[in-house]
Design brief:
The complex is a heterodimer of chains A (604) and B (183).
Chain A lengths: L17 E2 L3 H21 L3 H20 L2 E4 L3 E6 L4 E7 L5 E5 L2 H6 L2 E6 L8 E6 L1 H13 L17 H4 L3 H14 L11 E2 L26 E5 L2 H9 L2 H18 L14 H5 L1 H30 L3 E5 L2 E6 L5 E6 L3 E8 L1 H6 L1 E8 L14 E7 H11 L40 H27 L11 H28 L1 E4 L3 E6 L4 E7 L6 E5 L1 H5 L2 E5 L12 E6 H14 L7 H5 L10
Parallel strand pairs in A: 8-12
Antiparallel strand pairs in A: 1-2, 2-3, 3-4, 5-6, 6-7, 9-10, 10-11, 11-12, 13-14, 13-18, 14-15, 16-17, 17-18, 19-20, 20-21
Chain B lengths: L25 E2 L3 H28 L13 H24 L1 E4 L3 E6 L4 E7 L3 E8 L1 H6 L1 E8 L6 E7 H18 L5
Antiparallel strand pairs in B: 1-2, 2-3, 3-4, 5-6, 6-7
Classes of the chains: A alpha+beta (604), B alpha+beta (183).
Amino acid sequence: MTEGAPGSSLLPTPEAPGRLPWAVAVLEGRNLLLGLAGIALVAGDAFRWWALGLGLVFVGRLIRLRLTLWWVTDESFVIQRGLLFRSRRVISRARIQAVDLERGLLHRLLGVTEVRVEALGGASTEGALPGVAPEQASALRAELLLRKPKPPRDDALVPVQTAAPVTGTGEASDRARENAQQAEAPVAGAGEEGPIVGAGEETVRGGGEGAPGEGVDEENLEGEEVLRLPGGEVVVAGLTESRLGAGLAVVGVGFEAVRQGAFSGWFGDPESWAPVMAALPWVALLVGFTILVLLFSLVLSFVLTVLGYWGFTLRRRGDVLAVERGLLTQHRETVPLRRIQAVRVVENPFRRLMGLAAVTVVVGGRVDARNRRSGTNVLLPVGSRDRAFALAAQVSGWAPPEAPLREPPLPEEGKARPRTIEDPGHPIPHLHPMPPGARARRRVRGLVFGLLVAWVAPALRHGPSALLPWSWTGSQGGLALGAGLLALLVGLALAEGAWRGLGWAFLGTHAAFREGILERVTTLVPLARLQSVEVVSNPFQRRRGLATLTVPVARPPLEEDPRALDLGQEEAEGLRDRILAGGGGHAAGPAGLSRTPRSGMFVC
Amino acid sequence: MTLPGDPPTSTPESPEVSPTPAPALRFLDPRVRLLWRLSTGIRAVVWTAGVAALEHWGGDHLPLPASVPPGALTTAVAVWWILILLLVPGIRYRRWRYALRDADLWIRRGILVHRVSVIPYRRLQFVDTRQGPLERWLGLTELVVHTAAPGTSGLIPGLEAEEAESLRERLARFAPEADDEGA
C-alpha cells in the first residue's frame, strides 16, 4: 500500500537521509541580526564580546541544523539531531495529526518551505523542519497524510479526523448553520468567524475526509437544547463566584475589625507612628482608594461573569456539544464529546452552602492560543448539585443516555437518595474515603501550622528579636500559646475538611476522584481516555502506607491530570491494575472494548 | 524477588480482568552506573570549583558569620557532592526497573519519590532516543516514550544502544497495529 504516489521518490530514505539546505542558515541569520541589533542598543562598549558570543551561538546552531537528518520509512517519520548530544525522534505515521507547511516571505525568497509535523503529546511542534525544498515538502505532506498505513481510529486518542464533519469538510454546512443561527439571533456571529472549536485543531488536516454517517442532521442545524440558564441563575453564578465571595468576606471582616479597633495597639509604640499620623489624610486616602479599587474589581468581576454567561445555552449536535453565551460579546464554543478527557464538578464554599455546583471539562487537542479563552470549558456555570453531576455523568459517558438530564431527580420526602456504584443511572457516584493515614498526614500539617504561628506570633508583635523562643517573656509566651492554639484549631478543622474532601471510586468504565479543602472538585475520568497510569509515593506518604494515583490524560499543558491523592498503597496498585485491565490498557481485549462506552451519551 | 510496587504476578479476583502474565523485570544496563557517576562527577567538579572561586575571590562579600573559617563552604559542598556520588547512582540503579508487558510498558524509578508508570503501547505517540558523548563512549542510549498526555513520564536511560534501537522500532510499530479495534 505504499506504492504509486508521485513524488515519493523525492523523499529521503534511511539509507539516504535528507539534510536541511544551507538556505536555512539565512533564516537563522535573521535571528542573529535581530539579536545583534538588540544588543547594539543596550550593550555599548561590551558590544564586541556580546557579538562574538552570539556569533558562536549562531555557528553552533548552524552546525546543529546541518547535522539535522530526516527520513521516512514505511512506518514512521524520523528526525535526528545533534552531533555530541544526538537525539532521534520516531513518529509513527498513524500518529501524525497534521503536517503544516508554511512559506513566509523570506522562505519564498530562499525557495524553501517550513514543515511542521504535529503529533499529540508535546506542547510544541513534535517534528519541525525549518526549511525543505517546496516540492519535497509537498511530497512529504502527501506521503505522511494521504498514505497512512492504517488510519487511526481511536476515540480515546482525540481523533481529529472524526471531528471533521464539524470542522473541516463541513465548511459549507457550517456556513449554513451560521446563517441559520444569525437569522434567529441577529447579533450572533458578529465578529465571530464560525464556531470556535473547543481547544483548537482547526488546521487543515489531510486525510480529514471524515467518516460518513457522523454528519450533522441537516434538518436540525441548531441541535437539541440540553439546558438553558435563566437570567436569575446567571446572577447567582456571578454572586457565588469564589473570588467575589472571598473578596466580599475579606472586605467585610477587615472593615468590621478596624471599626471595632481590633488592631489598635498591635503595631507597637504609638510614638513611632507619629510621622504616619502626620500624613494621615494621605494614608486614609490611600487606604480608601485601595478599598474602592478592590470593591470595583469585585463588582467588575460580577458584572463580567453575568455578561459573559448571560443566556448560557448548551446544545448538542450529534456528538458535539455547543455552548452559546454572552450578552455583549456572544461566544459560541463547541466541544466534541470525543475530545473530553475529564469532567470536573466544582463546588466552591459558597455554592456548597447553597447546594450548587459548576461543571467544567478538560478538552484535549492541540493547544491553540486563540481558543484558550476563559470559559471555553465551562459546561454549566452554576446549577443544582444534582443537575451538575447528572450533566457530568452524561458528558463523560458514564451515565446512560436515558438518565435524567434536564430534570434532575428529586429526592423523595424524608428519604435518603440511594447511592450505589452499581447504579450509573444515578448521577452522583458514591466515593470511598481515603485511609486514616491520609487524615493523619493532614493533621500533622495542621499541627505544624499551629507551631509555626506560635513561633512567629510574638515576633510579629514585638519585632524580630522575639523570634527566639527562649528569650520570650511571660506575656510573649502567653501570646504564642494563644495564637498557636487558635491556629492549631483552625489547622485541625481544615485538616478534617481536607480529608473529608478526598474520595475515590472505580466505576467500571470510569473513575471518580475528589479533593479540595474549601473548594471541592470531583473529577470524572472516562478510562478510555487515559494515556498512562502512575502510582507515586513520597517518603511522607510511604511512612503511612499511602500513594497517589495519577491518570495522565491528553490535557492542555496548564490543566492538571486527574489524580487520587493519598490512596492506600495497595488500594492504589489494585486500582491501577483494574484501570489498566478495564479502561483501555489492553489493546484489543473484547472485554475491555465492550466495557468502554463510545461516548454513548445522546445516542438516540 | 518481589518488591513493593512490583507488577502483580496474579491479577485481582475480577473475572473480567484478563490475566496479566508476570512481567520480567529488567534492570538497566549496569554500565549506566558508571555513566551516572561520571556525569555526577563532572557536575560535582563544576559546582565545587564554582563555590571555591566564589569563596576565594568574593568571600568578603558573602553574608557569612565571621566564625566560619575560610574554605569551609567549599569543603561542605565537596563533601555533599562526594556523598551524592557515592550513594545516588547505586541506589538509582537498583530502583530503576522496567518491564515489557503484553500490553504496556512498565517503569519504576525514584529514590525518595517512588514512581511507577504504566504506559499502554497503544497510547504511544512517538519515541525518542538520545545519546550524549559519554553515552556514546559507553555504548548506551536513553529512550523516551511520549503519549498524548503531557504528564506521562516514560524514560528509560542506560539501554544498550542496539537494544534501544530495536526496542524503539518495536514500540513505534506497536501503536498503529493496536489501533485497529477502534473501527
